[in-house]
Amino acid sequence: QEKKIFMVQGPYPIIRHELRARGWVERKLPSMGRQLVQHHPLHYPWLPAEEEEQHDEDPNSIHDLMSYLVRDRLPNFIWTNFLDATDHELLQQDNVVNHYARVDAFTTKEGLCLSLQKLPWIEQADPNTFFPRCYRLGIMDEREAFIEDFRLTAARSLLKLALEEAGDTPVRTQKVPKSAKEAGRHRSHISHPKHSTARPGSPLYPELVEEALEVCEQHLGVLRHQDIDRSTPSPCRTCIDWDRFLQQYYHVAHEGAGLVLTKQQQKQCHNLLQHLAEQLPQLDMEGKLNVWILKPGAESQGKGIICTTRLEEVLQLAWSCTAPSMQMGRWVVQKYVERLLTIFGTKFDIRQWFVVTDWKPLTVWFYQDCYLRFCSRPFSLCHLERARHLCNVSVQKWYKTSPDQDPRVPPDKIWSNKQFQEYLAQLGQADAWHQVLVPGMKAAILSALRSAQDQVRFRKGSFELYGADFLVGEDFQPWLLEINSCPTMSPSSAVTRRLCANVQRDTLCLVLDRKDNPTSSTGAFELIYKE
Question: Which of 112, 146, 335, 512 could form a disulfide with 132 if both were Cys (CB 3.0 to 4.6 A apart)?
Answer without folding.
Answer: 335
